[in-house]
Amino acid sequence: MNSRLEKDALGEKAVPADAYWGIHTQRALENFQLSGRRFPGRLVRAMGLVKKACCLANLELGYLDKRRGQALSLACEELAEGKLADQFPLDAFQGGAGTSFNMNVNEVLANRAIEILGGRKGDYGAVHPLETVNLHQSTNDTFPTALKIASILAFRELSQTVARLQGACQRKEKEFAEVIKIGRTELQEAVPITLGAEFAAFAEAFARDRWRFFKAEERLRVVNLGGTAVGTGLGAPRAYIFLVIEKLRELTGLGLCRGEITLDPTANSDPFVEVSGMLKAHSVNLLKVCNDLRLLNLLGEIRLPAVQVGSSIMPGKVNPVILESVMQAALQAQADDFLVTEAAGRASLQINEFLPLLAQVMLDALEMLGNAGRMLTGHLEGVEADPERCLEILARSETLITAFLPKLGYERAGALLREFAAGGGRDLRAFLEERLGREMVERTLSAYNLTALGHREDEKDA
């Protein structure tokens, strides 16, 4: 393999000749071989935006000449657009609070800018990874800022996905509005409801998730770019510190602001813990909804879309595999929340050394839950009700009598139930129609009556 020789403070090392990364990345590539997991592409793209904001600020203030500044700006733009994505080979579980990742970005941008200027990779006299690309910056302000940008954009995407998921539930709410069935508590039959009402409850849970995700952006908008190593801005010009935030706002379109005490967002990662908790709440809703759908399918009250053969030995078996897949994603997201919490809590003094782990699992959870939401939305569209099966279960359920308490009272209702049981009846609804009249039973068990908020006093003796 052809290579080029690069130098750093530790000596010399061969780097693949066609690689845009350099010696710092090459050392990290050899040092950190843990998980095989890479940082999500959205974090790389966010770093492209951060580096471009820094470049533009330095260019405007005269710290970069026009020729090099424009080449570097173009390289940053390419990175932000998702180009050069294959030039980030490092393991996400790296030491150094993300320094290796930042150096990987610096080297890739430097070599791409050199290439734009007509030079050869590794000729850092033209564009230097540290003196040019990383000018007035530190890993400790660029990496957390990029992570917040990537997280905000991911939350916006997830919010849109959950909106579509909520919409799918609301459409089923309308479609199943007249499907009467028995409700259940503690896995036992309870009072009558409608199938549409069950889907309405699903929709409301997802509506709360959307509101939480809206608030997530507010929690993440405070960044520490310009704070350099520990948040004091040491090594950066005062004019740059104020200008770079403006440039970043312009590039991202996000309402970002510099922390009033910049040491805070450099040292403390609790906002990530808070928004990760929002992801955990969403995962709880996904678990609950998917499990309910599995149970309703088992009872035969709904039919899930058949998407693949379910067994290698049982012909004709079809399993709720989409729901199981989404539930596993939700469980993984809850595990990721634990890691976010631990990584944030183990920061020390003026830095969070474990931000790489936090970044990887946080962004992975956002990506995974987005995929899960899209899968579940498509699956919900194909869910069908079985009204006859719902009525069959409803008709034989003794808890059906509860709907008649406002008209009958507890004692009379209990007496009718005992009479029904003594006669060995199997269809309580038919029995009640004989005793109370069909019109009264149909009115009591109508979809409107079952989903109304309480009963009207003038209906008590109707």
**What is the helix/strand order?**
EEHHHHHHEEHEHEHHEHHEHHHHHH
What fraction, in percent, of the residue positions are helical?
55-70%
The CATH architecture category of the largest domain equals Up-down Bundle
Q: What oligomerization state is this entry in?
A: single chain
Beta-strand percentage range:
5-15%
Helix count from the secondary structure assignment: 18
- Count of the domains: 3
Separation of the first and last Cα atoms:
90 Å
What about the largest sheet? 2 strands, antiparallel
CATH superfamily of the largest domain: Fumarase/aspartase (Central domain)
Organism: candidate division TA06 bacterium ADurb.Bin417
Keywords: Lyase
InterPro entries: Aspartate_Ammonia-Lyase, Fumarase/histidase_N, Fumarate_lyase_CS, Fumarate_lyase_fam, Fumarate_lyase_N, L-Aspartase-like
GO molecular function, one term: aspartate ammonia-lyase activity
Explained architecture:
The protein has three domains: 3-135, Fumarase C, Chain B, domain 1 (Orthogonal Bundle); 141-386, Fumarase/aspartase (Central domain) (Fumarase C, Chain A, domain 2); 397-459, no CATH class. Helices cover 61% and strands 7% of the residues. The protein has helices at 23-31, 41-60, 66-80, 99-116, 129-133, 139-175, 195-220, 238-252, 263-267, 270-299, 321-345, 355-381, 387-396, 405-408, 410-422, 428-436, 438-444, 447-451; strands at 3-8, 11-16, 180-185, 188-194, 222-223, 257-258, 302-303, 384-385. A hairpin with a 2-residue loop joins strand 3 (180-185) and strand 4 (188-194). The protein starts with a strand and ends in an 11-residue tail after the last helix. It contains 18 helices and eight strands.
